[in-house]
């Protein structure tokens, strides 16, 4: 192995270790309270490596945001292809059972992503960014969330019979998303109320079934309201 390749390999390893440590520290402490010293120690790297690879703590935080965006985009890449193919069909609103399945599965996939214990630090960062948004959230939203939610919003609009550009339609989409996210945001409350000691495979299946039932009820209820003139 050449010396140049060895240096590149060590450099990529150091960057990855710093990024992983930054996800954990930023997730626990937030971007303001987290320090470069804490991150460097957690990564077992020299503190100067942060400036060398990322420029500053702010640069490292944006790199974490990019990591989150890439994770979401990669996870949903196959789904986005399927959604686009469906939306390109002639008269996609005529395929109601498939339309409902695509909407439900998209939300359940997002639930799996945010409930995965390996993504807990990323979920914390995203939750904090909702309350105190920074440039990092703009990056995550533009590159990962907006492309996905725009497509799901179009599907929901087709199902319930509304224009996808209406704020009402978008709010219905985000209301369902909010129910999905609630299982991440109130995780501790759920554990205490149910008596569970963790959310493992079996517990997630119960949550998934519950969400599927709720999403189905919401979709059918909204369709009844907006397509039945007696309920307009």
From TrEMBL:
GO terms for molecular function: DNA-binding transcription factor activity; transcription cis-regulatory region binding. Residues 12-72 form the HTH tetR-type domain. Pfam families: CecR_C, TetR_N. SUPFAM superfamilies: Homeodomain-like, Tetracyclin repressor-like, C-terminal domain. InterPro entries: Homeodomain-like_sf, HTH-type_TetR-like_transc_reg, HTH_TetR, Tet_transcr_reg_TetR-rel_C_sf, Tscrpt_reg_YbiH_C. Gene3D superfamilies: Homeodomain-like, Tetracycline Repressor, domain 2. Residues 35-54 bind DNA. Keywords: DNA-binding. The keyword Transmembrane does not apply. The keyword Transferase does not apply. PANTHER family: HTH-TYPE TRANSCRIPTIONAL DUAL REGULATOR CECR, HTH-TYPE TRANSCRIPTIONAL REGULATOR RUTR. This is Transcriptional regulator CecR. It comes from Proteus faecis.
């Amino acid at each position: 192995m050449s010396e140049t390749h060895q240096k590149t390999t060590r450099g990529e390893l150091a960057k990855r270790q710093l990024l992983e440590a930054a996800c954990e520290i930023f997730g626990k402490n937030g971007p303001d309270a987290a320090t470069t010293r804490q991150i460097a120690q957690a990564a077992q790297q020299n503190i100067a490596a942060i400036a060398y690879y990322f420029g500053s703590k702010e640069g490292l935080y944006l790199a974490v945001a990019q990591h989150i965006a890439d994770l979401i985009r990669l996870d949903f890449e196959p789904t986005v292809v399927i959604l686009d193919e469906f939306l390109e069909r002639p008269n996609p609103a005529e395929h109601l059972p498939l339309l409902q399945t695509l909407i439900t599965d998209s939300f359940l996939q997002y639930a799996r992503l945010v409930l995965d214990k390996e993504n807990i630090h990323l979920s914390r960062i995203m939750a904090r960014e909702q309350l105190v948004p920074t440039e990092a959230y703009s990056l995550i939203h533009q590159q990962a969330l907006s492309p996905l939610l725009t497509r799901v919003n179009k599907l929901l609009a087709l199902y319930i019979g509304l224009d996808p550009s209406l704020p009402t339609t978008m709010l219905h989409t985000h209301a369902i998303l909010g129910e999905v996210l609630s299982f991440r945001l109130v995780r501790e409350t759920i554990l205490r109320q149910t008596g569970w000691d963790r959310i493992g495979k079996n517990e997630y299946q119960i949550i998934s079934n519950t969400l599927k039932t709720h999403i189905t009820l919401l979709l059918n209820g909204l369709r009844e309201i907006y397509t039945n003139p007696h309920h307009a």
